[in-house]
Automatic annotation (TrEMBL):
Quaternary assembly: Forms a complex with TatA.
Keywords: Cell membrane, Membrane, Protein transport, Translocation, Transmembrane, Transmembrane helix, Transport
Coiled coil feature spans: none
NCBIfam families: tatC (TIGR00945)
PANTHER family xrefs: SEC-INDEPENDENT PROTEIN TRANSLOCASE PROTEIN TATC, SEC-INDEPENDENT PROTEIN TRANSLOCASE PROTEIN TATC, CHLOROPLASTIC-RELATED
Pfam families: TatC (PF00902)
UniProt function note: Part of the twin-arginine translocation (Tat) system that transports large folded proteins containing a characteristic twin-arginine motif in their signal peptide across membranes.
Protein's UniProt name: Sec-independent protein translocase protein TatC
InterPro entries: TatC
Location(s) in or outside the cell: Cell membrane; Membrane
Organism: Kaistella jeonii
Membrane topology: Multi-pass membrane protein
Amino acid sequence: MSFWGHIGELRGHLTRSVIAIIIGGIIIGFNVNWIMDNVFFGPTRNDFFTFRVVNHYSRELLGHDSITLPGHFAVQQKKLFQQFNVMMAVSVFGGMVLAFPYIIWELWRFISPALHPKERKNSVFVINFVWILFMLGILCGYFLILPFAINFGLLFKISDSIVQLFDLSDYTTLFMQVVLGMGVVFLFPVIVYFLTMIGILTPKFMRTYRRHAVVLILVVAAIITPADVLSMIMAALPLLLLYEFSILMSAYTFKKVQQRKLEDAI
């Protein structure tokens, strides 16, 4: 196939991916009231899953609840079309999350004709691994980081004279930043896999510069979380585990690459 033939083929896959996002966004849009009340604002209530789990074990160990959000989480609308804009943002974001496995499948359909049968078999595992990691990152951001960030923001007070009223757009930005940011960052092992496959990255390099990676992880955690230490630590811990897992993946992939080179040489 010529270069423009490949471009035309890619355009077809991208078009179907965009259609999938639109369909997912429409599904979210028709259920936006329930999603806003139960999912979007879920981490702002005391009966949220994360708070219930923490308080359950806290009552067994300490005899009392550890997390209790003070009062009602009041969100205000400052602009005329702010709720409409938030609804559109939530619909697009939700559509991307729902369509992500299909988007990855379309990407595999575009790449797979250029692969050998053995490579195609291995790529099926990688493709599934991509969307699973992305979903794990989304869940980690939603259930682990966002609730504690909100809890810290509500509890931190410098004066009792200050009334806590939160802007709808600010909360939406926080939600997208934490949840989507963790989803993207969790794709790091996939990047490590491909860089190791093409010979740019080695497990020895990752072990040698582990300390530098820790500093970089803390910087990334500070970017995707609000400006509090607790949220940054909560984000950094799974990322550190992810880095160690990436070293193991790089070592396994590097061994396979070296074995393939040896077989080709023979």
